[in-house]
Amino acid sequence: MFKQHSRQVKYTLNIQIVCGSAILITDYPKGILEFTPEYGILSPAMVPPRTSYVKPRRLRLETSTACQLKCPSCPTASGETGKRLGIGFLKFSDFKKIVDDNPWVSNIELSNWREIFLNKELPRMMAYAYKRNVALHAVNGANLNNVDEKVLEALVKYRFQNITCSIDGASQEIYSMYRVRGNFDRVIANIKTINKYKAKYRTPYPKLKWQFVAFGHNEHQIGQARKMAGELNMSFKVKLSWENLYGEAFSPIKDKDLIRRETGSGAASRQEMRDRQGMDIYAKNCCLDMWINPQVNYDGRLLGCAVNYWGDFGNAYQEGLLQSLNNEKMVYAREMLMGRRASRPDIPCTACTLYKIMQKNNYWLTDEDVQEHYWKSRTYVMLENKVLGPGLTARLAESRKKLKHLLKP
Q1: Which DSSP string do the residues of 137-150 spell out, in sequence order?
Q2: How are beta strands 135-142 and 162-166 bridged, if at all?
Q3: What does pTM read for this prediction?
Q4: Cβ atoms within 10 Å of 5's Cβ, excluding its own
Q5: What are the pLDDT digits (tens) for 22-73?
Q6: Burial 10-19 (b: 16+ CB within 10 A, else e)
Q7: What are the two backbone dihedrals, phi and then psi, of residue 303, each rounded to the nearest 5 degrees?
Q8: Which CATH class is domain 58-296?
Q9: Helix (H) or strand (E) holding 147
């Protein structure tokens, strides 16, 4: 009966069966029984914790470890990532296999260690993702320096969801001090071209964000950049630099009060953020990748998070995605990040600066932190892109949420 599909049985006053994919849950005050092909029929006490089994809808899949810029604080520019990860590009055949073999994956982040637009097979990936109702993202960032206009049109045509544009300045002089070899005017021209096609196709996608990494040399241009972002119909975010995460800090902040206001965090450095909040929120999100948004290198090596480039947890192409996400090393690492296991030399997290800070401060991820996060399903993506459009689909989802709440026993 339970071989083909998973079921959840809520044993409240009236027992009811709810169909859906098996997401293992650890909070059992009300009780949930899980039936899954992997574990059979489970009582609450038998259900593995969220460290033991994950099946996330979102995946980080590295499109390119090559970059044409030479940003001073970036390990890609220094050659460190190339030495460990190799310099290469995601193949369309590997992308297609991940999409076809893992139908629960509905959102894929393509950006991390470098410039996605250097991958010549990107348009084929966008077209196939659109066909299979998978939403693509470049939230980590793209520099948008070298992009063919046909690729810019494809971003719009195939409803690429969002792009974080890394623009740390409001002029060529200031921008190129960090984005070495970058061309500010070309980046702005490419953004205008995307907006031209968004008007032609009558779509809000891709949504564009201007990300301004704050340094001492560019902080005086934050206001000007924010104004330009508004004129280009972009959201705007001031981000703290990674400081000394990958080496010596570049161009330290001068006007700390300004940065405290502009970031909205009340902090002018990552240390201040840790002092105020107990943990660096950016770092926390990186560690959560191990549960909700795991990173896979272009060649299939499972890196786990967006920061790691010095070790891996196996190979998703060789082992299979679900198997690699739940192998012994990944399970152990997730337990380490929750403070339940001691560090181990063969686990990449052990060598991570962020993990060492967590150890020092005794600040760990909690059960609440690692609960399943909501991402658009493939059905939602299909309705949004091909049937109802973004607005109607969002309203339908909100109505469904309200109805579900009203019918809750």
Answers
A1: EEEEEE--SS--HH
A2: parallel
A3: 0.85
A4: 13
A5: 333 333 233 333 333 333 333 333 345 667 799 999 999 999 999 999 999 8
A6: eeeeeeeeee
A7: -95, -20
A8: alpha beta
A9: none
